[in-house]
Each structure stands twice: as structure tokens, then as C-alpha cells.
TrEMBL record:
Belongs to the complexin/synaphin family. SUPFAM superfamilies: SNARE fusion complex. GO terms for cellular component: SNARE complex; terminal bouton. One of its GO terms (molecular function) is syntaxin binding. This is Complexin. Keywords: Coiled coil, Exocytosis, Neurotransmitter transport, Transport. Positively regulates a late step in synaptic vesicle exocytosis. The keyword Transport applies.
Amino acid sequence: MPTNPGAVGGDDDGDDKEKEEEAERERQEAIREAEERRKEKHRKMEEEREKMRQEIRDKYNIKKKEEIQEIQQEEPNPLMRKKKTPEELEREANAEEEDEFTSKTELKNTIETQVSELKSTIESKCVLQ
């Protein structure tokens, strides 16, 4: 009997490795196929569920959540807006003051015009004897 285990039967080690590699490939292939079958099964189940959901939405006139989310996304979120720099804030404040002043003067002019029109209308209708 030889003391070197690889001297006699060295071919067995090579065959064993090949068999192990082949078995591992087959195992990986089986796992992949099982995963594909599972995904397909779940995809079909989800399609059936979505079909049932759509029938319920149609029956009760309910909008789909995705449609509702699209509507909400169109509206800007005030919390997510870009922060303004101090210069921008100052410009806005100045613009508001100018707008306020302009609107007050316009209002004053409008009132004065209306008062003068009323006064002239009253004077024309009332004749003092």
C-alpha cells in the first residue's frame, strides 16, 4: 500500500471535482429556475389582484392612487421650495412697500374721482332757487 494518497487513485480526485462542479451548476440552475417560476407566479397573482382592484374602482368610481399622486405632484410643496437669500427677501419687501404705496395712491385717486363725480351729479340735479 502506498503512503501517498494521491499516488494511487489520483484520477478519482479529478472526477470528484468535476462531479462536484457539475452538481453545483445543476443546483444553481435549479435554484434559478425555481426563482423564475416563483416570480412568474407572483406576477400573475398581482395581475389578477390588480384586475380585481380595477373592477372595484370602476364599480365605486374610485380614482387610482397613482392618479391622485400625479395630481398632488403638480402642486408645488411649499416646504420643499428653494430658500431665498437675504437680498431676495429685501427686494421682495421693497416691492411690497412700493406695491402698497401704489395701491394706496390708486385707491385714493379712485375715491377722489368718484366723490367729484357724485358731487357734480348732485349739483346738476339740485338747483337752488
